Automatic annotation (TrEMBL):
It is an enzyme of class 2 (transferase). The lineage of its organism: Bacteria, Pseudomonadati, Planctomycetota, Planctomycetia, Pirellulales. CDD domains: MoaE. It catalyses: 2 [molybdopterin-synthase sulfur-carrier protein]-C-terminal-Gly-aminoethanethioate + cyclic pyranopterin phosphate + H2O = molybdopterin + 2 [molybdopterin-synthase sulfur-carrier protein]-C-terminal Gly-Gly + 2 H(+). This is Molybdopterin synthase catalytic subunit. One of its GO terms (molecular function) is molybdopterin synthase activity.
Length: 164
């Protein structure tokens, strides 16, 4: 673990309290957080839960690389990236990002950039299960309300295509 970033993949619910303590620093003026949570509806469909799978060694390596790059790019003091794997019910967090910096602008700018990079570069795959029993693997560049092909809806395999 770097003294400046904490990266974790977890199978358990994300507890933000120890993460908040980890980025604490009396010499910074900003702490910023983003929690990505499972929402109840996607377009006109009702979501039961999300499921995440990952190639853990590769995902951890990419998260560490991403954290190091973000710290340099945005002059962050500390950074936390925690991603949950397995089933994540409605209302619970899938991902927690937290950072500290001397001033708010660095932290505010860092969070959306980190989340966008995480979704496109880190080998973590998301499957949405709807209350009607259907499932859909979600591609990071796909709009949640965009129509999908029925063959993709019924597939039990993740979409491993990479698009830029």
């Amino acid at each position: 673990m770097s003294p400046h970033h904490l990266v974790q993949l977890t199978d358990d619910a994300i507890d933000c309290v120890p993460l908040m303590a980890w980025i604490a620093d009396p010499d910074v003026g900003a702490h910023a957080w983003f929690l990505g949570v499972t929402r109840r509806t996607t377009g006109d469909r009702v979501t039961q839960l999300l499921s995440y799978e990952a190639h853990r060694p590769m995902a951890t390596q990419e998260l560490r690389r991403l954290a190091s790059e973000a710290i340099k790019r945005f002059e962050l003091t500390k950074l936390v990236i925690v991603h949950r794997l397995g089933e994540v019910p409605v209302g619970e967090a899938s991902v927690a990002l937290g950072c500290s910096s001397p001033h708010r602008k660095q932290s505010f700018a860092a969070l959306p950039w980190i989340m966008d990079q995480l979704k496109t570069d880190v080998p973590i795959w998301k499957r949405e299960t709807f209350t009607d029993g259907s499932t859909q693997w979600m591609h990071p560049n796909e709009s949640p309300s965009a129509p999908s092909h029925s063959s993709e809806l019924d597939s039990d395999e993740p979409d491993l295509r990479i698009s830029n």
